[in-house]
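assembly run, all chains below
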Amino acid sequence: AQSVAQPEDQVNVAEGNPLTVKCTYSVSGNPYLFWYVQYPNRGLQFLLKYITGDNLVKGSYGFEAEFNKSQTSFHLKKPSALVSDSALYFCAVRDTGDSSYKLIFGSGTRLLVRP
Amino acid sequence: DTAVSQTPKYLVTQMGNDKSIKCEQNLGHDTMYWYKQDSKKFLKIMFSYNNKELIINETVPNRFSPKSPDKAHLNLHINSLELGDSAVYFCASSQGFWVNTGELFFGEGSRLTVL
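ok done. output:
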């Protein structure tokens, strides 16, 4: 069965600094990988996805993520963090080798950007 | 005009009661989901319907019963509520299930508190 891990409960970064939120996955087939963001008292919003092609994918709000097959990782990055980026970030995976086609979410990482 | 809307947004009730949460989407999608987010923010899929047909039914107590009267609606009924049912329940939708890569549109959540 597929799984996804976000090893950090919280990431703290100063505004203007680069940020990285880590995600690793395990699948039996090929992965479809996603990042979602959740602001307080709101539903999850889609940020970006990797399906195939270029390993570096760009998404909303200046975020990007790099697919690394050998390390089974899909870390979320942003060159310059904003205070408004503070939120809960979820990595998710869909396993093409799993007939259930379920989208499985990681446990979430809280990003805190201080002014 | 909210794409995925859930009602009620907040629900406080006593143990043993029966309650329902309603979800409607106006995106024209044919697949809808219920996810449960616990107090630690862990997000887990409960059910998925595609064209009113149940296609995902996770290991959820049979006190939980989803109902999809049409493609635009997916309601969740919970019988004999227990303390452990306290959580935020998210409805989501997508265009297609088997062909969809995994980009979901989420409602804002329904916070259920069982006393």
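Chain A has a mean pLDDT of 93.

The interface with chain B takes residues 32, 34, 38, 41-46, 49, 51, 88, 90, 92, 94, 100-105, 107-108 of chain A (CB under 8 Å).

not gonna interpret more than that til we talk
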